Amino acid sequence: MKLCSLILLLITFATSKNLRNHEVLFKRIQEHVSPHVIPKIKDNGIGVVLKLSNILSVDEAQGILKSSIFLVIMYQVSELSWNVSEINIEYFELRKNHVWIPDLIITNLLKLNNVGYQGGLISSEGKVYIAEIITLETYCEYDLKRFPYDEQICNVNIGNLINREIDGYGIYDLDIPLRANEYKPNSQWSFNSIRSSYKCLDKITSKANDCTENEARNPNNTYIKDVIYAISIKRDPLFCICTILVPFLALCLMIPLIFVLPPNCGERTTLAVTIILSFMINFLMLGAVIPASSVSFPNLGIQFLIATLMSAASILLNTFIMAAYESEHEKPPPPAVQHIFLNLLANILFVTFTSKPDQDVCQKTTQKLNANSEWRKFCLVLDRLIAFTFSFLIFLLALAVFQII
Fold first, then answer.
1. Burial of 225 (0-12, 13-18, 19+ CB in 10 A)
2. Is 118 or 391 the better-scoring residue by pLDDT?
3. pLDDT for res 53
4. 115: number of Cβ within 10 Å
5. d(Cα 212, Cα 215) in Å, to the nearest integer?
6. What residues have CB less than 8 Å from 295, skipping those under 6 apart?
7. Alpha helices in 351-404 (DSSP H)
8. SS3 letters across 307-335
9. Coil, strand, or helix at residue 248?
10. Residue 146 CB neighbour total at 10 angstroms
């Protein structure tokens, strides 16, 4: 019974001592870190660290990145430090509204959707940590030149609302490593890295320029205006390959088929017009993805334009071939044309000619019969030549689409 009473007395004494320590620290915090008064911050200034938690959406058309970030703000006040051996507390946790919060802003912020966890922590060294989980939308300038194999860099600029050169402190980046479980993967975008840089304000010229960390920490010449966090993300191209590239190449492969059909087949023109209309629809789909504010025009857009021009050229060539094949000719093609097409190219392209009696032709003169026959042979060779040419061009286009060349 006496042993139990002694243990209970020791527990009560330890608890009361711990409560007294917390009361002492809380009073000290209220004296030196008021939410409404700027404390005496040490020369190292205000440290910030930004870590990417999740990529929620990427809107290339509007130039917006919606993300969830983990933001930590740190500053050190000498009066807040205590001796851990005297006060057996290493960290003191408290609410965010009990300490002074620096007036930092995200300068390229479009919309602040949600603020999640907010908390404060003070260490025995007098360092005040303020942590927040924020869902926000920031402006991002997308470069879609290599779409859909592109990598984008979106900046989050953190700066002072007021020029803090007067108050004697600036902002700088805290180098805290990112834990693997802090980032939640996105189905369409993968996270590469996040790097910090500085935008410094020259005290003499009052111009803002990019600067190194050593220059940023030289208070005699420059003042840190912004800490810029460059978030590097890479697109997963599988979705775009299945929905854009594969249908696009399937349409391209149909262009040579126009010239595989017989020249007197009326469906040739129907097929050619259908293909070019399909390319126009694909152009509209691509335009919905590519923003007008893109840094450079994407290579895929140029490839779409080339394929559309090839489709338009196929209509013109098909019209010429059908007209030459069906028309009545008084004279055969020029000798040079006959030698190139009917002799050389016909052998190279493996074109064989078969004579089919035609009642209408047989009733004409021998000269007209020979002329029409030569022109039709010329059209058959030209058909084969165009089909091979377009097939080769489409092969090169496919290599360019899949970034092989």
1. buried
2. 391
3. 86
4. 12
5. 5
6. 141, 142, 143, 144, 145
7. 359-362, 366-401
8. HHHHHHHHHHHHHHHHHHHHCCCCCCCCH
9. helix
10. 15
pLDDT for the residue numbered 163: 54
- 318-321 — which CB contacts under 8 Å span 24+ positions? 318/258, 318/259, 318/268, 318/269, 318/272, 319/269, 321/259, 321/263, 321/379, 321/382, 321/383
Position 385, amino acid? L
**Would you list the DSSP string of 222-242?**
EEEEEEEEEEEEEE-THHHII
Query: Per-residue confidence at 12, pLDDT binned at 50, 70, 90?
Result: very low
Which residue intervals of 114-259 are DSSP H helices? 213-216, 238-240, 246-254
Q: What is the DSSP string of 277-294?
A: HHHHHHHHHHHHHS-TT-
Starting at the earlier edge strand, list the strands of the sheet with 151-160.
104-106, 151-160, 222-235, 189-202, 208-211
Tens-digit pLDDT profile for residues 157-193: 888 766 555 444 667 777 766 454 567 888 889 888 8
- Cα distance between residue 386 and residue 166, in whole Å: 75
Instruction: Please count the residues of the chain.
Output: 405
| Structure token digits, residue 211 | 């600067």
Tokens of 333: 């093609």
The helix/strand/coil state of 60 is: coil
Candidates 191, 190, 210; CA nearest to 199 is 210
Checking if the pLDDT of 303 tops 80, the result is: yes
- CA–CA separation, 126 vs 148, rounded Å? 49
Phi, psi of 194 (to 5 degrees): -135, 130
Q: Give the pLDDT of residue 180.
A: 46
Torsion of CA 330, 336, 341, 345, to 10 degrees: 170
For residue 344, pLDDT beyond 70: yes
Is the pLDDT at 362 greater than 50, yes or no? no
Cα angle value 342/344/348 (rounded, 5°) = 110
Q: How far apart are CA 223 and CA 210, in angstroms?
A: 11
Confidence tier at 219 by pLDDT (50, 70, 90): low
| Among 77, 56, 65, 145, CA closest to 109 | 65
User: CA 5, CA 3: separation in Å to the nearest integer?
Assistant: 5
Give the model's pLDDT for residue 102. 81
